[in-house]
Specification:
Elements lengths: L3 E2 L6 H4 L10 E15 L1 H7 L5 E4 L4 E15 L11 E12 L2 E11 L2 H10 L4 E3 L2 E6 L2 E6 L7 E7 L4 E2 L5 H6 L3 E5 L5 E7 L4 E12 L15 E17 L3
Parallel strand pairs: 1-3, 6-7, 6-12
Antiparallel strand pairs: 2-4, 2-15, 3-5, 4-5, 5-6, 8-9, 9-10, 10-14, 11-14, 12-13, 13-15, 14-15
Length: 249
């Protein structure tokens, strides 16, 4: 497949359009989210992303993002949140792909500090989910995120907001990075799969962060073009998630 180079595509409504008639199956809230975006040579990412997915780049530059956050109020459709399973810390490592004109996210790895949640997502969404002990807590205006070291992965960082919230500018790198409303993966046979994700447009804030330990990129043998990430913070997003389905032509 041809590699996609960024051009401003359609309206936000187009980017958020649903690609299935099925109802959503899960709802959750993401809280105190840090986006740490690193530019990465597209050649490196192309070797890591499955061939059935088209790598997305912003003016020929690839990007990979590390995103720690706290999940709360997670529940299946028609079922109230289950005590002990609804709230947990996690992070994901992701890059950006597109298929049939719909930009989305491809995950290299996701973690949850809840075994049942990680097992459910790994089984039903066919995602590389891992259970890991983590803490996500507030210390005055600072968010303290701490994970154990597991399978070569560890993330220890502090972060905070440093501005008021606003929508990303149309056509900006920020909009390109965060305004994506689906995830992609592939089946064991290489068939592209997609799950729609719907929430309000991101209200982003500038962020400051200090990384005490971060092995998430080196664990993937990725050396970014810059060790200094583009940082954003978001207070909250209420998210609905649809079933994962094969991508039709």
């Amino acid at each position: 497949m041809k590699e996609h180079t960024f051009v401003e595509e359609g309206s936000l409504r187009e980017k958020r359009r649903l690609t299935t008639n099925l109802p959503w199956i899960m709802k959750q809230t993401w809280n105190d989210i840090l986006f740490a975006h690193y530019p990465v040579p597209r050649k490196i990412l192309r070797e890591l992303v499955p061939k059935g997915l088209t790598l997305d780049t912003f003016y020929q530059t690839g990007w990979i993002s590390i995103v720690p956050y706290l999940t709360s109020s997670m529940h299946l459709r028609g079922v109230p949140p289950v005590p002990g399973m609804a709230n947990f810390a996690g992070f994901n490592v992701r890059t950006y792909v597109t298929l049939n004109g719909k930009p989305g996210i491809y995950f290299f790895g996701l973690t949850a500090a809840n075994y049942l949640a990680a097992h459910f997502a790994k089984t039903f969404f066919r995602l590389p989910y891992f259970y890991m002990n983590m803490n996500h807590k507030k210390a005055k205006d600072l968010i303290v995120f701490e994970s154990e070291k597991k399978s070569g992965m560890q993330l220890l960082c502090n972060y905070k907001s440093s501005s008021t919230p606003s929508l990303a500018d149309r056509g900006s790198l920020e909009e390109w990075l965060v305004e994506r409303y689906c995830l992609y993966t592939v089946s064991k046979k290489g068939m592209p799969l997609r799950a729609d994700i719907l929430h309000e447009p991101w209200l982003l804030e500038k962020a400051e962060a200090e990384f005490h330990q971060n092995t998430l990129l080196s664990n993937l043998n990725i050396v970014p073009d810059s060790e200094k990430p583009v940082l954003h913070y978001a207070k909250k997003a209420v998210v609905r998630i649809w079933p994962i389905v094969p991508v039709s032509e």
